[in-house]
Each structure stands twice: as C-alpha cells, then as structure tokens.
Amino acid sequence: MRLSRAQAIVDDVVTNASGPVCVFVADTHGELVAAATMDGAAPDTRLNAQRKAYTAARSDARTTRELAEKARADPVERASFDPFFTFFLGGVAVFEDGLRIGAVGVSGLPGDTDERLALDAIQRTAT
C-alpha cells in the first residue's frame, strides 16, 4: 500500500463520514500505513479500526463481514482464528491488479456505515 493512496483513503473517509470515526489503513501484514481519529470519536474506536484493517489484511476474506459469515458456519474454524481478528463490520481489503495490497478499517458509526465508508473510499481512490 503506497502512502499516498493510504492518505487519500483516510481523507476520503474523514470527508464523507456522517459522524466521528477512526480510520486505519494497513499494509498486507496489518501494520499501520496511515490513520486518523476524528474529533469526538470514542476512544475504543481506534483499536476497533485497527483490528478491522488487520483482519481484512491478513485473512483470506475480502471483508470482515465475509469472514464473520464464513466463521459462523464452522465453529472449529472460528476457534482457530488469530486472536486479534474481529468480526465487526468495517474492515475491507484493498486490491490492485488482483493482489491484496492492504486493508482499511473504519469504526465509530453503525457497522454497515463503517463498511460503506471503507468500500467507497477504496473505490474513489483506485488508480
């Protein structure tokens, strides 16, 4: 994940959020590339955004929603996940030319809204 794209994703999420959120953009290992915490965002949203991005970056799913649905169907698989993984909505993998290059985690609004902010920012910043 290039820093310029990561910063553009952060800017897009912050600009389009209807309320205070945290956004975390990670590389393929789930490590920080860029992040922001909007004024008024609850403190726990920082860690939630990080965990969402980490999960989407490191799992085989495209979103935390997809991973939750997969895990719901198989309790044994769910028990074997990385303990930092989360199933909260708002984590979305970023792909370029079919390759996963990182992920975005958004937290602070309802899960569907967090996910939509991430998806839209990824689409709008695609080259």
Present the secondary structure layout.
Blueprint: H1 3-16, E1 22-26, E2 32-37, H2 44-58, H3 64-72, H4 75-79, E3 91-96, E4 99-107, H5 111-125
Antiparallel strand pairs: 1-2, 1-4, 3-4
Describe this structure in words.
The chain is 46% helix and 20% strand. A hairpin with a 5-residue loop joins β1 (22-26) and β2. The model has no long low-confidence stretch (mean pLDDT 94). The chain has a single domain (3-125), classed as Haem-degrading domain (Beta-Lactamase, 2-Layer Sandwich), CATH 3.30.450.150. The protein is globular, with a radius of gyration of 13 Å. With 127 residues, the protein is of the alpha+beta class. It comes from Solirubrobacter phytolaccae. Pfam families: HbpS-like (PF03928). InterPro entries: GlcG_carb_metab_protein (IPR052517), PduO/GlcC-like (IPR005624), PduO/GlcC-like_sf (IPR038084). This is Heme-binding protein.
CATH topology: Beta-Lactamase
Helicity level: 40-55%
Instruction: Return the string of H and E elements.
Output: HEEHHHEEH
CATH class: Alpha Beta
Work out the number of β strands: 4
Which parts are unreliable, with pLDDT below 50 for 5 consecutive residues or more? none
Q: How many DSSP H or I helices? A: 5
Strand order of the largest sheet: 2-1-4-3
CATH homologous superfamily assignment? Haem-degrading domain
User: By helix and strand content, what is the structural category?
Assistant: alpha+beta
Largest sheet: 4 strands, antiparallel
Strand content: 15-25%
Task: Give the C-alpha Rg.
Answer: 13 Å
As for the number of domains, it is: 1
N-C termini distance = 12 Å
Average pLDDT reading: 94
Name the shape in a single word: globular
CATH architecture: 2-Layer Sandwich
